[in-house]
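Something for you to look into today, if you have time. Just paste the record in under my message, thanks.
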Amino acid sequence: MAEAVYIHEAYKKFGKSETPFWKRIIKGNGNKNGINRKNGQKTVVVAVDHVSFSVSEGEIFGVLGPNGSGKSTLIRLLATLLLPDGGDIRVFGHDVVRHPMQVQRLINRVSVEASFFKKLSPMENLIYGARLYGMNGADARRRAVEILKRLGLEERAIYKPMEEMSRGMQQKVAIARALLSRPRLLLLDEPTTGLDPRSKHEVQDVIRELRDEHGTTILLTTHDMLEADNLCDRIAIIDSGKIVALDTPLGLKGLISSNEHEPTLEDVFLELTGKELVKEEDRLG
């Protein structure tokens, strides 16, 4: 089976000042430019630390990890939104650094905090996105209605301003916008955050349909262990920028033993990282 995603020794670091800029300006210490050189030293945060894995075409691949573990940075590297500091990252054979335009034509992304023109309706937002991808207006409008209804939006909600919609409903529109371009690789960063149980199942059904009927490759980050268990063919657990385990859900659960009950992904996660997984909706408040 062909490789949709190839990542070898991917490395991404971020540098930041130990002291906020405004404090360095105030302290000054007689420096002509008002910068305290001692406090201006840099610290480096490694977000993705020599990560390697591949994803086969048509696979649903999950990435689990605590907040700040590097999951979203990994997604942004694949989406060409960030440049890696080292390693090799390819999408359907295209290097994300050398051939970003080719990669962008093959992918779409849904983030946990999607942006919209809030005064516009879901339909207007989707048509705007479709035009950026060069899609025909009539075809895009027909497909937008089809996807939005499939995700559970009522007809009247499709034409109302986004600002009148709940966060969960807005997340459905974000998913619809990503599906509109028929991407070969769909990057889903916490796609069901803020959705009620019924809406979660609707989105999960659509994800399965994309893979089963259209051969779409899906890379998914989630804090929902049951979602990962039910959806993903394989799962990587990442902690502090490093992959600590990678296997099928069944294989991961076989890494630990429990006499009291059948091991779950939550048990595996706690065992490997020593951390409780905080759901994104709880973190966002």
